Amino acid sequence: MRNTKRGARDGRKLVRTGALVLVLLLLAFCYTPPGRAMWTELRRACGLLPFAQSLPDADLTVYVIDVGKADAILIETPEGAVLSDCATAEQAKTVLRVLKQRNIQKLRAVWISHADSDHVGGLTQILWEVPAEEVVTSMYTELTGLPEDQTVRTVSAGETVSYGEAEFRVLAPSEDLESTNENSLVYKLCYKKFSVLFCGDIEEKAERLLLDMYGDTLRADVLKVPHHGSASATSDALLEAVQPQYAVISSGEDRNLLPRNETLKRLADHGIEIFRTDENGGIAILTDSAETKIYTENGK
Fold first, then answer.
1. pLDDT digit string (tens) for 143-166?
2. pLDDT tens digit sequence for 109-135
3. Do the beta carbons of residue 193 and residue 164 sit within 8 Å?
4. 258: which of 4, 58, 228, 293 fits an S-S bond (Cβ 3.0–4.6 Å)?
């Protein structure tokens, strides 16, 4: 009888030891790259990840971060990540949180459209925490408060800057229009057969110059709507030239009531599917150039 009890105790002890070893092995596996990937997929399947971490892998990801009436757009390719504008100083923490969630510890570049605070306000804080190989802007934009050793590249209309297969084709400004908005850096992101037209905060005069210079070559799959959807931009002529399938608007609560109803109507009249951060939250455009999928933070 005593041997039976001892055997039962030994058996239970062996089971507990085996279970402990199994748990330790499982914990160790979770810290390996395959283990982390498996854990991430499990949390993604259960809907337990933040939106930025829940996105599937893609050749190109264009993530319009929800920073209110400001701009901050993260562009990811296999060759690295580029940040287009940096939102306000108050929203820098939002941008940094997304960079952390996307596991981005260094940027290939930060592209700054112009020096208004809702586009450049978060730049200094972001660069101190996530360094960039270069900051890119136009000759008509002056940047201050950068780290002393920060490389700054000035680009002009007609130049192309490439990061792997992702090409940033600079279209404007071609001349000084004496307005920070009108002097916004305009460029087309081209990745294989997919393209996005980034327009900063351009208004009527800069739009007309773009149309005169480029016409139908402005055509793109996605339009980053100028100036948060103001009434002074996104003309019928621009939409006829670009012919986008999708339009994204970075917007939030604002005394100017952006995006304006007349701008939204023009987009709708052209049959363009509209995504806006004030309704959709973060907007992620994923493509391998053959197929494009759009995910939104709020699921709308």
1. 999 999 999 999 999 999 999 999
2. 999 999 999 999 999 999 999 999 999
3. no
4. 228
Q: Do β-strands 222-224 and 194-198 pair in parallel, antiparallel, or remain unpaired?
A: parallel
CB 92 within 8 A of CB 127: no
Amino acid identity, position 125: Q
Amino acid at 179: S
List CB contacts of 23: < 8 A, sequence separation 6 or more: none
Residue 193 is given by DSSP the state T
Residue whose C-alpha is closest to residue 211's, from 237, 181, 179, 234: 237
Alpha helices in 90-142 (DSSP H): 92-101, 117-120, 123-129
Read off the pTM.
Answer: 0.84
Query: Do the beta carbons of residue 70 and residue 120 sit within 8 Å?
Result: no
Q: How far apart are CA 131 and CA 41, in angstroms?
A: 29
Strands (E), 139-216: 152-155, 160-163, 166-172, 186-191, 194-198
pLDDT digits (tens, 9 = 90+) for 201-222: 999 999 999 999 999 999 999 9
Confidence at residue 31, expressed as pLDDT on a 0 to 100 scale: 65
Given strand 160-163, what is the order of strands in its sheet? 160-163, 166-172, 186-191, 194-198, 222-224, 246-249, 273-276
Give the DSSP H/E element, type plus range, for residue 4.
helix 2-30
Confidence at 178, pLDDT banded by 50, 70, 90 = confident
Q: Give the C-alpha separation, 40 to 42, whole Å.
A: 5
> CA 278, CA 299: separation in Å to the nearest integer?
13
pLDDT score of 190: 97
| Alpha-carbon span 30 to 39, nearest angstrom | 7
